[in-house]
Amino acid sequence: MRDPVMCTGDGHTYERHAIAHWLEMNKTSPLTGSSMERWDLVPNHAVRKAIAELQLELPSEEELQSSFGVPGDDGGQGASSSSVVQGGPAEKRVYNEDGIYVFASLRRSLYSLDATVHVWKAKKLCMPSKVATSAVESTWESSMKAQVTCMKALDRGRVVVSGSRDKMLRVWNVPKGGVDSAHLKQEAALQGHTDWVNCLDVDGREEVVVTGGRDTKVIVWDTLKWYAKHTMKTQDYVNCVAFDRVRDKFFVSGGNDWKVLLWDSQTFRQSLEFSGHTYALKCCAVDPVSASWVVTSGDDSKLCVWSPESNKCLVEIEGAGGDYNESINCCSISSDGHVVACGLANKRIALWDTRTWKLLQKLDGHKSGVEDLCFVPGFSNKKLISVDGRSLRSWSCKSSDWSCDHTVTAHAIACCEMASY
Asked: Other CB atoms closer than 10 Å to residue 56's CB: what's the count?
């Protein structure tokens, strides 16, 4: 197994994509035959740890798909569980709300390998409406067989950068006439990773992009000439990366080795190591106002706040993932640094006040675990976009109370990103 999960319907452990496909087609347990109208998939950390300790050579994805008979082109794979989105920089400029767009990576179906991108105007998504929001579907490349796991938009150069399961980092041009005028065009397809690209982030000056992958590599890419300028090795899968966009002095990474690594942005050497998590990390973000703290979380359901000046843990919140200590899949910090939003495996979004580290509110509405989320710039930190693999939701805050404005249902939404053009 690569991703063992326990099915709450019968208490047995399965490979995630295999049981997910089974439950799409059946409402019974594959082992007991009992009816399972209600179920959920919870990461089995004990089995995952046991597999890691055995140091076995895991089967390839193709072998797993063939064994379980999951349909799809070349053995399609399920939605990525480690997609990551970090909070945006503390921008000084005034945003034009008409020029802010939401990019979301979609697939034709849950097990399809064809990746497309849908683009919405953020202003329309953030207005209450019962009518389906019109979207501009910009095909990245119909022939590209790659599930997108992470995206980032660069204002300078008008490009969107994406990482995918085919080990490639791709650069896409946004037409000068706007996203409504034409399809996105691929500018470059960069090789460097030898396994899935799990995460990426861009520095404040937009001069470098950092990616992390299942090959345990952290790669720094030059955005002027688009080449790999430096490669670092870690001890396990890298699931999340986040830049200090205030001073561009450091960036952090986290993964399956349970550690948070802090890297110097100039020398690309590891300067600090934070230890305190007890399972794999899935998300991290840096304070966009002063870069004086870093927030991390993951499969141990623990929310930790670290000081980049030392290896001291400033805040540690146990059970931040919910009543049953579910995983925290993603996190984002508002541009004023006052709110941290966490996407939970229990289908909720948890909002935390960073001045007191008290829980502000839990948002319900998603039908499955929240895979990705980000605050919308230009809306006074009162707008939030989130995806759960099947739908995209926009949230707004009115009188300190958050509620859902709009829902867009789709086959398989992997990740979302904001852009201002």
From this structure: 10
Angle at 211 between CA 70 and CA 78, to 5 degrees: 15
Q: Is the pLDDT of residue 130 over 80?
A: no
Q: Give me the CATH number covering residue 395.
A: 2.130.10.10
Q: What is the DSSP letter of 144?
A: -
Cβ atoms of 107 and 147 within 8 Å: the answer is yes
* Residue 244: Cβ-neighbour burial (10 angstroms; 0-12, 13-18, 19+): buried
Q: CB of 174 within 8 A of CB of 161?
A: no
Asked whether the predicted pLDDT for residue 3 surpasses 80, the reply is: no
Q: Does 257 share its domain with 143?
A: yes
Domain end, chosen from 27, 51, 68, is at: 68
Domain of residue 160: give its range.
97-420
Indicate whether 147 belongs to any domain. Answer: yes
Element (H, E) at 173: strand 168-173
Q: Is 230 inside any structural domain?
A: yes
> Can you tell me the distance from the alpha carbon of 368 to that of 348, in angstroms, rounded to the nearest whole number?
9
Sheet with 259-264: strands ordered across: 238-243, 250-255, 259-264, 270-275
Residue 237 is inside which H or E element, if any? none
Least reliable range by pLDDT among 173-177, 224-228, 236-240, 288-292:
173-177
Domain count along the chain: 2
Please list, in sequence order, all residues whose beta carbon lies within 8 angstroms of the beta carbon of residue 71, skipping any fewer than 6 positions away.
Answer: 21, 111
The alpha carbon of residue 188 and the mean position of all alpha carbons in its chain are separated, in whole angstroms, by 22
Mean pLDDT of 77-101: 47
DSSP code for 99: G
